Amino acid sequence: MSKFILASASPRRKELLAQIGVEIDGILPADIDETPQDRESPRELALRLAESKAKAVHDRDEAKGHFILAADTVVGLGHRILPKAEDEKTARDCLGLMSGRRNQVYSGVAIVSPDGEMVSRVVKSQVGFKRLTQNEIEAYIRSGEWDGKAGGYGVQGMAAAYVKFLSGSYTNVVGLPLFETSQMLQGIGYKGLKSQ
Description:
The chain is of the alpha/beta class. Helix content is 32%, strand content 24%. Strands 1, 2, 3, 4, 5, 6 and 7 form a seven-stranded mixed beta sheet that branches. A hairpin with a 5-residue loop joins strand 5 and strand 6. The protein is elongated.
């Protein structure tokens, strides 16, 4: 059977794929520019980044003839794209913006088959935050869970206490929509799923 390459260094995506029986043979993160383009929507950005990562890894010799999965998660507030939090100020700003509001989580997923066929799609979930107090924001900043996360939060950790509403795929908010991903993998000929 062809090997399975994950074009992401995200430990969350690796764990999620293991839930549905995908055995990862190699991790080859794609090094691409993730800067949003002018007037690009959160949905468009998620899809473009996933497809660009899949193409970049597919072009590498060590990935030839294997299944490749790339994904990117983008958090939006309306048309506004929230950044990945790389410092406390960014995380604090994101939490302040999301306080008492609903944000949209878009995951772009792109899969390339061993013969080079690509399938891709975007999955959207909505997450509603309670109105956060300054103490709650500061407690979350101290936790460090925001580091490197789109929109500055991870729903699978301490931030779950702030989420009063979630519509759509929970695993999408964690980092990879498993139902849609498993359907895509079956459709493109991957045979290693637990459910098959």
